[in-house]
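fold-stage: in
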Amino acid sequence: MKTNSHDENGLDTLINLRAVARHIGRSVRQVWREIDRGKLPKPVPGRPARLFESDVVKYQERLRQERDGKPNDGREKEL
């Protein structure tokens, strides 16, 4: 997956759920679970199911913040 989620025309790239799963190190079934839980957005209409690459990047950033003990707004947790 590219670090810049926009193509040469400035449009957000769509990626299928198999590529999402590979990128985040989970199975396609686990990706669907994250979608059902609202942690990842619903796929765009059509087949195969696809997500915007920028949404996957945001998901990973939220995971990193949770791991580091930071609230979703990026501020440090108060002790």
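fold-stage: in (second)
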Amino acid sequence: MNSRIVPAVSNCNLRGLAIISLVFVMLAGCATAPPPKTSLQLQAFQSREFETTLKIGFASVMSVFQDLGYSIEGADFDTGFITAHSPTQQTFVPFVGQKMTHVNATAFVEPMGQNRTKIRLTYVLVAQTSSGYGMKGEKEIAIEEPEKYQESFEKIQKAIFVRENIE
């Protein structure tokens, strides 16, 4: 007769397994994405007021976009709206195909009284994929890192300074 010995499962082993499982479940729950920013939070770092005229503010934003390598797609002084995009970066991704990314930028420049101008910027990362089989995909992600906007506003401030001291 062939007898096998089956190890007994103790309550201690079950408790240990339950505790480890509980820890994994709790850690997985901690990995949630932060809540989306409110419109007021976005405006706080996407907007800045400058002591300058609408004309100088508008021209400064245009030149900074160009200095950053963006191509101006459209600009309307009457509405204060500027659209631009960065050069496209193309890479090959195995099992996916080609991936192209670029950044769309918009600016809204508006007068806020005499010699005060408000500028609001938005940046959106656009990622497109295409395979050899004709499949295409696109994803747009708003860039919400305040540092990106701070850097742009510092350059706009310098451009305003230069323009005001040339005239």
